[in-house]
Amino acid sequence: MLSRLxxxxxxxxxxxxxxxxxxxxxxxxxxxxxxxxxxxxxxxxQRFMEIVVSFSMIILALAVVSILGTGTFNLTLAIAIPMxxxxxxxxxxSALSIxxxxxxxxxxxxGFSHGPKTFPAEPVRRCGRIAGxxxxxxxxxxAPA
Length: 145
Description:
The chain is mainly alpha-helical and 145 residues long. The protein has one domain (2-142): MetI-like (MetI-like fold), CATH 1.10.3720.10. It is 86% helix and 0% strand. It has helices at residues 2-36, 40-54, 57-68, 72-99, 102-110, 114-118, 122-142. 26% of the residues are buried.
């Protein structure tokens, strides 16, 4: 009986973990881009994310499945895509708080390029917020599978 349960849970866990990793990765990348380029690109990206958040997750997942079709990978995408804006909002808020720190201002004053101002240690320090936001989202991702 246990072996049947484990065999049946394989697909659900694959879809849940895959969608969580995919959604977190895309959301983190978009959140950093949105916070770093605050003017036009960041504003446009953030307004688009707010539009996506305004739709229900089930409606978005059904739309993605109807466009892409069925299958495990398409189901993973259908669950990950509605999760991206939520992660983007969390990462953007963290990245905007980094922009205001003293060492970011000092790096700008010293003339460093774009990368060293934000990327050496900050992703490691901010992973807790992403992990926390993904923990409550895990049940929403596994349940539809």
